[in-house]
Each structure stands twice: as structure tokens, then as C-alpha cells.
Amino acid sequence: MNRNELVGVEAARPARFRWGEWPVRVGLLALLVALPFIPPFNREDMLRWLIGAALIAAQAIAFDFTAGYINVVNFGFAAFVGLGGYTSTLLAVRLGLSPWLGMFAGAAVAALVGFFTGALTLRLRGIFAAVMAWFVGLALLGLTRNLTDLTRGALGLNAPTLLATADNRPYYFIIVAMMVLTYLALWRVIRSHIGLAFRAIGQNLDAARASGVDPTRYRVINFTLSCAFAGWLGGFYAHYYGILTPDVMATSHTVEVLAVAYIGGRGSLWGGALVAFPFIFFVEWMRTNLVELPGLHLVIYGLLLILVMVYYPGGLAELIRWAGRRLRRLER
After folding, report:
1. pLDDT of 141-155, one tens digit each?
2. Which pTM value belongs to this model?
3. Contact 255, 104 (CB under 8 A)
4. H helices present in 35-168, as ranges
5. Is residue 111 a contact partner of residue 225, using CB atoms and an 8 Å limit?
6. 9-61 pLDDT per residue, tens
7. How many angstroms separate the CA atoms of 268 and 284, rounded?
8. DSSP code of 160?
């Protein structure tokens, strides 16, 4: 075998491994579909935990789309989730619109506000863009608390549910489907020429501009898409839990999603989704069994983020990639 043939063989091995990732992902998806039928996950309390984990997983995918690819942390992310939820709920309560349509209306409103937020803030760099997004989130939170004639403030809105059933299993399948659609849609964008521009901006904004990429334009596109999915998921939140209060927009909820996305691995999309299920189960267990220590989960978020940033910045996704590289070496 000559040198050119050897090069061809070595180039083909990583490709086989990349294709081999899809059977793993399909297997994990099949496991998620089967979980509600496997004890103890078939219990109603466990199903609620699974729904919460899938919701956070989907939000982590949308959050990582911005933080991982254009290097902008949207500290107002939870506010866009809440904006979608409030929009869908108000349309259902005031106009009688179906929650199924209201969720898409919530996505559209969140995308519109995200577009204007991005157009105003994403000309800035680094921490300034993140802080401005946070200020917009705080403004939205303040509006929901103070416009009591519209939102009922801290009393909350009663949202009609998606389904006329108290069974949690159908809701679980809905949010898993939404999570998969969120991943596939954003993954497809990342694989396009637009995604190439996102990665260039995230790696070196000045070099991307010198190459002919308009950083502001592509950052606004990215931010708008992320906010649209946040609003869509917020609609599910409202119509599953049936009650919507301004607390859904709190920065602590953004921190929760941020922690999951970073521990899973920035710039992977799937890393945060993979981490969300065991992580949220652990958090819910603490909330149930350690009621005398409220807020302990936020302390754990902080400690885990510090450990990941210091010792393994690539998160779980990078660890899995490292294991894949080791396996390829063993094949040689």
C-alpha cells in the first residue's frame, strides 16, 4: 500500500466514526421513548421529572446555539421563554386561540423581540452584549410583574392545557418530539453555510469580518432563531404546568439552562441535552429530600461550572469525543 492509499485510509476512519455516532443517538432516542414504560419511570412523579428534564434539554440546545457558536451568552434567555409562554396563554385566554397555535405565535413574538434585541445589542462585543441581553430580560420580567391588568402579576395566569388529560405520558412524548425537532432544525442550520459563518464569528470575529462575513447580520440571525425556539418551548411550559407567573423569567432559570449547556459542552448542541436528564433528576431529588436547604442546587451548579471551566472546558461532549479518538487509535 503506497503513501496516498495510507492517507486515504486514515482519512476514512474518522468519517466512519462520525457516521457511527448516529446509531448511538438513535439508540438514546429509543431509550427516551421507552423510559415511561420502564419502572420506576412509569410513575407520575417520575414522568414529571422526565418532562422537566426534556424541557431543560431542549432549552439547552437553543441556548448553546448562541453561546456555543457565536460566543454570546444570552443572560435574558429565560425571559424569552416566558415571553413565548405569556403570549400563547394570553391569546388562549383572551381570544380563545388553540394552545397548539398559540405556541407558534409565542415563538413568533419571541423571535421578533429577539430580533430587535439582537439588532440593538449585538453590535457590541463580549460581556457588553451579554449584559444588554440580560437588561432586556429584566425589563420583560418587570413588565410581567407590573402590568397586572394584563398578566395578573405575581398571582399568575391560568393557562389552558394542551391535552384534556391528567396523564403525564402524552406530554412527555410531546416535549421529547419538540426537543428532537429543536436539535434537528438547529443542527441543520449549523451544517449550512450560515453555520459556517457562525463558527467563524465565534472563533475570531475580526478574522471573520476580514473574510467578508458581516458579524452583526449573522449574530442577529443566530440570536433570533434561538429566541424563537425559546418562545416555542415557553408555550409548552405554560400549557403543561397550567400556571404562569413572572418567576419563569427569573435569571436563576437562565443560569440553570446555562449550567446544563456548559457542562454538556459548548458548541455541541447535543451535550447539554445529554446532561440534562441525569442532572435534572439529581436536582429534583435534592429539592424533594433536602427541603431544609433551598437553593442548594444553584450552589452545585456554580461548583460544577467552576470545575468544568478549570479542568475540562469542553464538557461532556469533549470527553465523549476523546473516548472516540481513543477507540479509533485502538482500531489501527
Report:
1. 999 999 999 999 989
2. 0.89
3. no
4. 44-67, 77-95, 99-121, 127-146, 148-151
5. yes
6. 333 333 333 434 667 778 888 889 999 999 989 999 999 999 999 999 999 99
7. 25
8. P
